[in-house]
Amino acid sequence: MADTAAKRETDSVGTDELSQRVKRAKADNENGDGGVGKDPESEHILSEFKTSTVLSDSAREKTIFVHGKLGDQEAVVILEKTPIREDDLAELFTGSRLKLEMRNDIYSTYRLLAPPQLNEIKTTVVCPATEKHIKKYQRQESSLVEETGEDYKSITLPYIQKQSFSVQWVHNILEKKAEAERIVYEDPDPEVGFLLLPDFKWDQKQVDDLYLIAIVHQRDIRSLRDLTSEHLPLLQNIFQKGKEAVLQRYSLAASKLRVYLHYQPSYYHLHVHFTKLGYEAPGCGVERAHLLADVIQNLQSDPQYYKTRTLYFPLRADDGLLGKFKEAGRL
Amino acid sequence: MADTAAKRETDSVGTDELSQRVKRAKADNENGDGGVGKDPESEHILSEFKTSTVLSDSAREKTIFVHGKLGDQEAVVILEKTPIREDDLAELFTGSRLKLEMRNDIYSTYRLLAPPQLNEIKTTVVCPATEKHIKKYQRQESSLVEETGEDYKSITLPYIQKQSFSVQWVHNILEKKAEAERIVYEDPDPEVGFLLLPDFKWDQKQVDDLYLIAIVHQRDIRSLRDLTSEHLPLLQNIFQKGKEAVLQRYSLAASKLRVYLHYQPSYYHLHVHFTKLGYEAPGCGVERAHLLADVIQNLQSDPQYYKTRTLYFPLRADDGLLGKFKEAGRL
């Protein structure tokens, strides 16, 4: 399952992963010696930081990942603004200065200058950082690829076959050799059956970010591209029973679900994503997700829809398949 | 335009939409009188703000929407931390204090106390705020609605017509009575022509979150539902010339763009969204967005595709249209 996990991880290069690792080690918190220390100097350690390059940033999430040097050592510094806490509001409102930006009718906008202690920036330093760290935090540009039915046959399918990505971990799940205790629902039918289980991204602590995966028992369906009207009973069965199982287990109505397939998928054994509507799950964007309801409808009106259509999907700059499309002059 | 703007705001409970309305009217900026003013007092206007309740917040986006009172008037205050800018890094690193939180091996975390002017909070005040404003900013659950071609005719279309949402502000743009200086590109042809201009969500300071809108000159196309193969020349023209204009103006290749329509749209005058691939723009999820390339392809193979298909989209609990679907027993 390593391949998949790695693939999954690359989807969401977050500060969360890092903070996970950092928290995991928090027990060792007080034992440090040498290096960046608890000594007073550490309060100004970043003043000697020399920025080389911004690895990635997010205007939406207010984060930035910076590569540079601390003294003669490579380092990565990660800054993330902290969420605005309800408890701080009163003090924020009384203790801050406002600069008027514009005003119109009932609307006015300001720049608010807050006391630093009410407006901290979470800072993580990785030092010395290896090449691997730097690559990990680097934003990978994606390009939208246009794949005709012909491109699939001549470029994508041979690539998938040559890579022979292992889906042994999927077979282990289907055979109950692994993760059996995580199964939420199973329809054991070999033709239309499937297993439903939580995605690893979901900690199952709240339904706000519910994320389940339905994995089909049939083993020869790689992706959307293999689907024809023959598979309608399978797809309809997943749609229907999957929604029922979510209602049963999590009391979440079908109208609160986003049910979709990925193209390209992360692994080439047909699976369907069930996520909570309103939760912006990684990969739920229109450039990669296909609503199961649309897939069913499209196959009903054209049995060969996904064999013949041009499909669009993003590929990261370091994805081998992107190289194949470039070689073929398709980008 | 109030209704339409309000509709936009309800879509993604963003501060962005609000700033949209605020910015749109920026011309009137200096004419105000009374209320929250440009006088020095405005610098401390929030010190008298009494919080009643937090309407919504986002730990991910570092935003909070607060309802309360300014004197004896109802008000909504919206705070959003600002993105971390590369240009500020050097000053941030030298001018800030760090408080060590934990340290383990090569990892250490700190709380960074930054100079207020390098760490502003964008603040928007709506005062006096009506019940409608308060409702608008309140977090709302959405439900996925299934709309058949028949449902569109019997439920959605009558609702749209009855509401008669004003698109006067769109006409103002098309007639160059407003926002003329913001136009990035125009094809003036009355049949296949359109205007391309930045969405208000985009501050145009970096292409990372590029967001442009193409608004068609034709005035009788409400949405995806009105499109038939007759409109292919229009759609292809927008796709082609829009991508060229983005390349020309922002040096961003077509393969880095996500080009799509919304259904339901925020306003019923046909428009197309151009956003940067990789930027998780609000509304780019598969449940609401339709790739223009797919729309073109679908109309090519079935001229009536969008008249006859069942379409799926989320509606907020307070959306009047959701009430209509419930009344009709369709939810």
TrEMBL record, chains A, B:
The active site is at 271 (nucleophile). One of its GO terms (molecular function) is 5'-(N(7)-methyl 5'-triphosphoguanosine)-[mRNA] diphosphatase activity. It holds the Pfam family DcpS. GO terms for biological process: deadenylation-dependent decapping of nuclear-transcribed mRNA; mRNA processing; RNA splicing. GO terms for cellular component: nucleus; P-body. Residues 1-11 have a biased composition (Basic and acidic residues). It is an enzyme of class 3 (hydrolase). Gene3D superfamilies: HIT-like (3.30.428.10), Scavenger mRNA decapping enzyme, N-terminal domain (3.30.200.40). The keyword Phosphoprotein applies. Keywords: Acetylation, Cytoplasm, Hydrolase, mRNA processing, mRNA splicing, Nucleus, Phosphoprotein. This is m7GpppX diphosphatase. The lineage of its organism: Eukaryota, Metazoa, Chordata, Craniata, Vertebrata. The gene is dcps.
